[in-house]
Amino acid sequence: MYKIVAKQKLNHLVEKMVIHAPFVARKCMPGQFIILCVEEGDERIPLTIQDYDREKETVSIIYQIVGYSTQKLAQKEVGDTLAHFAGPLGVASVLHNSKRRVLGIGGGVGAAPLYPQIKELQAQGVSCDVILGGRDKDYVILQDEFKAVSNELFFATDDGSLGTKGFVTTVLNELLAKGRQYDEVIAIGPLPMMKAVVSVTKPLNIPTMVSMNPIMIDGTGMCGGCRVTVGGQTKFACVDGPDFDGFEVDFDEAMRRQSMYKKQEQHICNLKLG
Ligand code: FES
């Protein structure tokens, strides 16, 4: 059993939990994820790791309350336990100081997995600018954390309540127009956002890594649920990713697959909570 040692509301839909999970905390690296079950027999929820503390043996996760299982997770409080917390899963992000200037782009809860990558790059002496986006200022999470690890921090919100009014690509285009040069872009967020970022960076040949978050079941490469097409080949996000070369990802297929079970997800929400 895995004890919840801290819990924080980041906005009315997004929460952070710190879990005592010694094995995961000892081994995990930026870019990896865990799969948790709230109670025995529950749906398995894959979540990327937002932070970890090897001394305290804790792992931080951030989740958006979108369905039955995340609503159930949100009902848990400090002192309660989770039945399963398996990981670290997936391939760690390739982060090294051969890159001199990196731009991180995080949309919504995509800021959570972006954070440990930028933190690690900054620790290695890489200069990192960051753009965080959300529908309004309340949806732009981890602002203080990113302030501490980024060279310059920019914001984009749909309603203009924080930073530039528009999308993260609005800011990206502005920075590039001003002559900013980046050796790599790391974009993590909703599929349409990552696709839009790649549509800017690909013609300019700025290497762009994205993190895929498809439907996952086992998380070990056995079920095929998380398959994505990358460079014309089938890859499994849970064992080959979740990071992939954004230039090679078939985003349209990924978006079709992501919406495949929307009806069933709504049905189970209504059935169990309604
Ligand atoms: Fe089953 Fe990746 S989650 S193969």
Automatic annotation (TrEMBL):
Membrane spanning stretches: none
Annotated GO biological process: pyrimidine nucleotide biosynthetic process
Annotated FAD-binding FR-type domain residues: 1-95
Keywords: 2Fe-2S, FAD, Flavoprotein, Iron, Iron-sulfur, Metal-binding
SUPFAM superfamilies named among the record's database cross-references: Ferredoxin reductase-like, C-terminal NADP-linked domain, Riboflavin synthase domain-like
Pfam families the record matches: DHODB_Fe-S_bind, NAD_binding_1
Cofactor details (free text): Binds 1 [2Fe-2S] cluster per subunit.
Necessary cofactors: [2Fe-2S] cluster; FAD
Cited InterPro entries: Cyt_c3_hydrogenase_gsu (IPR012165), Dihydroorotate_DH_Fe-S-bd (IPR019480), FAD-bd_FR_type (IPR017927), FNR_nucleotide-bd (IPR039261), OxRdtase_FAD/NAD-bd (IPR001433), PyrK_electron_transfer (IPR050353), Riboflavin_synthase-like_b-brl (IPR017938)
Source species, domain of life: Bacteria
GO MF annotation terms: 2 iron, 2 sulfur cluster binding; flavin adenine dinucleotide binding; metal ion binding; oxidoreductase activity
Annotated residues for binding of FAD: I62, Y63, Q64
Binding site for [2Fe-2S] cluster: C223, C226, C238
NCBIfam families registered for this protein in UniProt: PRK06222.1
UniProt name for this protein: Sulfide/dihydroorotate dehydrogenase-like FAD/NAD-binding protein
Organism: Zhenhengia yiwuensis
